[in-house]
Design a protein that fits this description.
- The structure is a single chain.
- By secondary structure, the chain is α/β, with parallel strands linked by helices.
- The chain has one domain (11-247): Metallo-dependent phosphatases (Purple Acid Phosphatase, chain A, domain 2, 4-Layer Sandwich), CATH 3.60.21.
- It has 10 helices and 11 strands.
- The chain has a 6-stranded mixed sheet. Strands 4-5-6-8-7 form a 5-stranded mixed sheet.
- The protein is globular, with a radius of gyration of 17 Å.
- 45% of the residues are buried.
C-alpha cells in the first residue's frame, strides 16, 4: 500500500461526508453549507438509493474541479467485482446493486436478467466512471487525522500496514477496541445507530479519537457532514432522508 501513502494533504479546512448511497438530493442539500475548504468523500457513493449515477458523476465533477478528494468504499469494490465476475456477482445485481444498475441502465434486474450482458453494457457506457473508481485510494491523511472508509486494523504495529480489505470492510474489531494509533480516525461504513445500538444516527465519537460519521442515509436515516477548520473548530451538519438541512 506504499503508493497510497502519498494521499497526504496539508492541514486545512475540510468538510467530510461518507456513505451517500445514491442519495443525490440529500448530498446537494448538505453541500448548500459548503463555502470553502476541501470536501473529503469517504466512499460508498452507490447502491441502496435511486440516484447512484447522479452521485457518482457529481463526486467526479467536484474531484475534477479540485474541490474534493474521494476514497473507495466497500460498495465500490462490490460494483467492480460484479463487473469483473458478473455470474459470481449476480447476487449483487439482484440485491444491493439493483438500484445502481437501474440508475445506470434504466432497467430493474430480476432473476432472468443476463448478468454478463448487464456488466458489458455498464463497461461500455461508463468506462470513465469505472476508471475513476478503480483509481480511488483507500485512505487520506492530514497531520494527525486519518480519513478511511471502514477503519484500520488496530492489532498491527503500524496502522498504515492495514490491508485494503480491512480499510474497506472492518467493523467491531476496529471501533470496539482502544485506539492506540496516536491518530484521530474519521470513518464511515458502519452507521452510527448500529455502533450505538439505538436509533441515534448523529456523529459518534470515542474518547480516544475515533469519529464515525455514517448517518445511515442508505437506511433512510440521515446524511452527516463534519466540518473541521484548520484551527480545529468542528461543526456538524446533517440532512434527514427526504428532508432539509439542519445544523447542530
Amino acid at each position: 500500500m506504499s503508493e497510497l501513502e502519498t494521499r497526504m494533504i496539508a492541514k486545512q479546512d475540510v468538510f467530510v461526508i461518507s456513505d451517500i448511497h445514491g442519495h443525490y438530493d440529500e448530498l446537494r442539500k448538505l453541500l448548500e453549507y459548503y463555502k470553502n475548504g476541501l470536501i473529503l468523500f469517504l466512499g460508498d457513493y452507490i447502491d441502496r438509493g435511486k440516484q447512484s449515477k447522479e452521485v457518482l458523476d457529481y463526486v467526479m465533477e467536484l474531484v475534477g474541479q479540485g474541490k474534493a478528494m474521494a476514497i473507495k468504499g466497500n460498495h465500490e469494490e462490490l460494483f467492480l467485482d460484479f463487473l469483473t465476475h458478473p455470474l459470481l456477482g449476480k447476487a449483487y445485481m439482484l440485491g444491493t446493486g439493483s438500484k445502481t444498475i437501474q440508475s445506470l441502465l434504466s432497467i430493474t434486474p430480476d432473476e432472468y436478467t443476463d448478468a454478463v450482458l448487464v456488466a458489458e453494457k455498464i463497461k461500455e457506457e461508463y468506462s470513465e466512471q469505472i476508471e475513476f473508481i478503480r483509481n480511488l485510494p483507500v485512505y487520506i491523511t492530514m497531520e494527525e487525522y486519518v480519513f478511511v472508509h471502514a477503519g484500520i486494523n488496530p492489532h498491527l504495529p503500524h496502522w498504515n500496514d492495514s490491508s485494503e480489505a480491512d480499510m474497506l470492510w472492518i467493523r467491531e474489531e476496529f471501533f470496539q477496541v482502544p485506539n492506540n494509533t496516536g491518530k484521530k480516525i474519521i470513518f464511515g461504513h458502519t452507521p452510527t445507530f448500529k455502533i450505538r445500538g439505538n436509533q441515534d444516527s448523529s456523529i459518534w465519537q470515542s474518547a480516544d479519537g475515533l469519529i464515525g460519521i455514517d448517518g445511515g442515509v442508505g437506511f433512510e436515516k440521515q446524511l452527516n457532514g463534519l466540518y473541521i477548520s484548520k484551527s480545529e473548530e468542528k461543526r456538524v451538519y446533517y440532512v434527514e432522508a427526504n428532508q432539509t438541512i439542519q445544523q447542530k
